[in-house]
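Example S7 (structure tokens).
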């Protein structure tokens, strides 16, 4: 059952409503129901969401730049990656500036002698011959001189003299000596020479003979190679003849020195 107080309030509200409807009584007493409170009504259904609003205007200059932050801690070293493929070779750079000359080093120890090399071809083909077809009846002195250019100081010279020669002294034995000189001096320690001995003979013992040999220790350069005639040791002068009716010659060759 509804309480009496509630009924009273409902009744007073009805009277107030009717007075408000009555246009002939605008000054109806509205305070007669002030002592009565209405019962809360049932909440209404929520309305739909409104449409989204328009985008706002962009800010000026994108805002102020913030202060620089503190540097972070150093990260751990990463693993070494695989070796890359070889790139193309670059072009040659410019030649660098010549460096200063270094300090001369100390002289090293002498090494063991190497094996002897083979005889070179260039040395054996350096040769010359001087040829003449005139006789010489000189008993002592220069017969013929031949100029030769020696290429190396370490080589030897082979010299040969070929001619028809004789030594004659009627009524007694005699001897003549034909020998080779180099710039006026004989080879040392061994000379290049040939002796022609004749016993007591009144004939003409002319024969073609050849005198030859090697001479070492001759410096390179221009050499005057000569053939001379003179006395044999222990014999005096005699009648000597060089180059009778035949070609005479001096042959000179440059050779590598032998180990012997």
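Recovered sequence:
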């Amino acid at each position: 059952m509804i309480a009496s107080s509630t009924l009273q309030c409902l009744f007073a509200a009805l009277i107030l409503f009717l007075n408000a409807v009555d246009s002939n009584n605008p000054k109806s007493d509205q305070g007669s129901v002030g002592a009565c409170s209405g019962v809360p009504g049932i909440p209404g259904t929520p309305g739909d969401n409104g449409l989204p609003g328009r985008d706002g205007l962009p800010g000026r200059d994108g805002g102020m730049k913030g202060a620089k932050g503190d540097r972070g801690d150093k990260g751990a070293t990463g693993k070494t990656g695989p070796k890359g493929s070889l790139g193309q070779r670059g072009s040659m750079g410019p030649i660098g500036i010549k460096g200063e000359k270094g300090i001369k080093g100390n002289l090293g120890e002498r090494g063991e002698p190497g094996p002897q090399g083979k005889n070179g071809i260039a040395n054996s083909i350096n040769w010359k011959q001087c040829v003449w077809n005139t006789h010489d009846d000189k008993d002592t002195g220069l017969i013929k001189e031949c100029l030769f250019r020696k290429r190396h100081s370490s080589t030897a010279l082979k010299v040969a003299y070929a001619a028809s020669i004789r030594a004659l002294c009627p009524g007694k034995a005699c001897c003549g000596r034909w020998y080779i000189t180099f710039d006026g001096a004989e080879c040392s320690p061994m000379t290049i020479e040939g002796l022609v001995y004749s016993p007591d003979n009144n004939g003409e013992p002319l024969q073609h003979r050849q005198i030859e040999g090697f001479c070492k220790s001759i410096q390179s350069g221009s050499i005057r190679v000569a053939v001379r005639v003179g006395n044999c040791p222990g014999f005096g002068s005699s009648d000597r003849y060089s180059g009778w009716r035949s070609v005479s010659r001096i042959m000179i060759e440059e050779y590598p020195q032998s180990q012997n």
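Notes on this example. The longest helix spans residues 4-21.
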